[in-house]
Here is the input.
Amino acid sequence: MEKEAAKTNGNKEVRVWSDGCYDMVHFGHANSLRQAKALGDKLIVGVHTDEEISKHKGPPVFTQEERYKMVRGIKWVDEVVENAPYVTSLETLDKYNCDFCVHGDDITMTADGKDTYQFVKDAKRYKEVSRTAGVSTTDLVGRMLLLTRNHFQQGKHEFSVNKEGSANMGQDSTAKSPWTGCSQFLPTTQKIIQFSDGKSPKPNDKIVYVAGAFDLFHVGHLDFLEKAKSQGDYLIVGLHTDPVVNEYKGSNYPIMNLHERVLSVLACKYVNEVVIGAPYCVDENLIEHFNVDVVCHGQTPIALEDGKIDPYAVPKKQGKFKSLDSGNDMTTEKIVARIINHRIEFETRNIKKEKKEIEAFAALQRAKGIQASG
Here is the structure.
């Protein structure tokens, strides 16, 4: 309703500004941007530099170039502004002809404890959207450092949500932070509908199918999916279940459970449809059901089912298999290695971030108490 009201104001195009670090871009970021886009016509997203993030929050996991590319890959984003200032000012909004700024309902602080959105709040050019409970970069870093498996969805617990203590990593509701201290993502059909474009392939569309874990959705995945989409008109991504991924990747993989991975992939602008819990072997039934014209796989090794069955044997036999080289060798394992190699830095970052959030939350509650008593 707010969007429609804004549109009727002289039929002016409503330009919305959002900004952030967008480190290890996940479905929580995407959901925030989806909500922001719904408040206007065009969504302009500012992304901070590595230097600015390190100064105010601690070291980012992804480089700024990786983060710029990832944000451009989100389906609701119209423009990306690189090197966006950490504190959002009226000058920034005016420079990019934006009507207002949108951010989640958590508080973002500078290194000296100031609200980064205070200027636009004071000018009444600020709107809030609901933060996606249950996911944050802090949470994902914690999963990698602790090598936890409590986020898996499998067997009789496939659709349940588990909570375990997480020491200082802010992984669940037992952690102290009111915003990033949780791991209680509740999957709903409504959320999937919101992320899906809901469009079926046209009669003459060339349909492309790819499958995998797509864990910790990253620039390697993004470049591969762009390349796969270029092979046809309609791209379907099959996502393997958590137990299947764990079987061929081992350790505590996948870092993100199936429901989280579904939303991460659906947020990608190159993806048209997702098969939730796709079979590991691409068989004749799947190819026929989705009317698949070409099946693609990247340069990562193909694990044989039961150690002997090629999961792509059928599409290869049908002449529908194509091996793609996206030119990007990033893998989920390399991201995890970055975290492990800089463990102390990231643990310190998480503790520091949680402390700032607790202080900010306390200040917010005090301010609300003063307003209520006044």
Notes: Confidence is low (pLDDT under 50) at residues 4-8, 157-184. The radius of gyration is 21 Å.
